[in-house]
Write a structure and sequence with these properties.
- The chain folds into 3 domains: 92 residues, TolA/TonB C-terminal domain; 110 residues, 2-Layer Sandwich (TolA/TonB C-terminal domain); 107 residues, TolA/TonB C-terminal domain (2-Layer Sandwich).
- Helix content is 15%, strand content 32%.
- Strands 3-1-7-4-5 form a 5-stranded antiparallel beta sheet. A 4-stranded antiparallel beta sheet has the order 15-14-17-18, covered by helices on one side.
- α2 packs across α3.
- About 5% of the residues have low confidence.
Length: 362
């Protein structure tokens, strides 16, 4: 039995692996792969290639040989502070939105830019050939449990620590004192040995999300921890924390900025019988990224919205798609023959700690 060391809370950002079905063929049997996605260079109108000053980590994926994930290209704009917005998927790929959410966290060199695109590149590795840090990440966070990967992580000499040592005293970093980047989860996986008295020896960072402050705090906390003997070599321990402080949505224009012809009642906001309850886009919810959308629509005499269209959405088009679906499923009180040219604003908010997120008309 394999057991992975580390605390269960706060959880790391869950990252679903790519799920691919091995092709049924009479040829060579497909093999499991680890796939490392990365953002390529950005290109904007005028040929500019703005520099990434904050490149969020893209989590390792699991795949199969002989299958290819669809290429992913995203379009976006950059505001004066270097923040990406108006993010939208182009073509296939990124159906769950995780690359769009990662781009929303990124930062570029300050300066307005429009008509930008960025692509995701992927590097594949066999389970026994992957860089050690990538293999460890896949084992702890990627949901990969193949024996070949376990052997790659723990099979080297010296290692006799596949089963987690029983803790006597476990210390944790003071998470609330560590700086954090909104929209970004942090984790560190530490390697260590134990002496016969259960004291930690030779602790080092084996894999990390790139949060150097958490790496240092984790090393201090692990060094103060104590475990049951006997002496062991090649152990691993994890510290992690979720996305934390929400990344606020870009500023929303006033309601008066969006008007449609048709004579929709001014009090349409008060006429909802079954208010819209849009689904918060999961990849953005997981990263604690807030957003908003403005939806135009008509209303049938029986109260059902129709002809819904996205007038604006930030920081990504998926908020508009979610808001539109929520509007279409709601119902309104109608006087007469229905309405045309109605507009509603939907805001997606992350709740305070212990409170759920919300997505509702604003």
């Amino acid at each position: 039995m394999l057991a992975l060391g580390g605390q269960a809370a706060p959880p790391a950002l869950p990252v679903p692996p790519i799920v691919s079905t091995p092709p049924a063929s009479a040829g060579t049997a497909p093999t499991r792969l680890l796939v490392a996605p990365r953002f390529g260079p950005a290109r904007c109108i005028g040929g500019d290639s703005p520099a990434l000053t904050l490149a969020p980590r893209l989590a390792v994926e699991a795949g199969w040989s002989g299958t290819n994930a669809p290429p992913v290209t995203l379009s976006f704009a950059i505001d004066a502070t270097g923040r990406p917005h108006d993010i939208e998927r182009r073509g296939q790929g990124d159906y769950d939105g995780r690359f769009q959410a990662a781009l929303a966290v990124a930062r570029f060199a300050p300066g307005v830019a429009k008509g930008c695109t960025i692509s995701v590149t992927r590097q594949s590795y066999g389970l026994s050939e992957a860089p050690r840090a990538l293999a460890i990440e896949a084992l702890f966070f990627g949901g990969v449990r193949e024996p070949a990967l376990i052997d790659a992580v723990f099979g080297g000499a010296p290692s006799n620590c596949r089963v987690v040592p029983s803790p006597r005293v476990t210390h944790f970093p003071e998470f609330n004192r560590l700086a954090r980047t909104p929209g970004t989860a942090s984790w560190t996986i530490l390697g260590y040995d134990l002496d016969a008295r259960g004291r930690v020896r030779g602790a080092k960072v084996e894999a990390s999300s790139g949060d150097a402050e958490l790496d240092r705090a984790g090393l201090r906390a692990l060094g103060a921890s104590r475990f049951q003997g006997p002496a062991r070599q090649g152990c691993l321990f994890r510290y992690s924390r979720g996305a934390g402080q929400p990344l606020a949505a870009p500023e929303k224009p006033p309601r008066t900025a969006f008007k449609l012809p048709g004579g929709c009642p001014e009090d349409i906001h008060a006429r909802w019988l079954a208010p819209p309850r849009p689904r918060f886009p999961e990849a953005f919810r997981a990263r604690h990224i807030e957003g908003w959308a403005v939806i135009g629509f008509d209303v049938a005499p029986w109260g059902q919205p129709g002809n819904a269209r996205v007038l604006n959405a930030e920081p990504a088009a998926v908020f508009g798609e979610a808001a539109k679906a929520g509007i279409e499923q709601a119902r309104l009180r109608v006087d007469g023959d229905g309405y045309r040219g109605c507009v509603e604003h939907v805001r997606f908010r992350i709740g305070e700690p212990g409170e759920p997120e919300s997505a509702r008309v604003d």
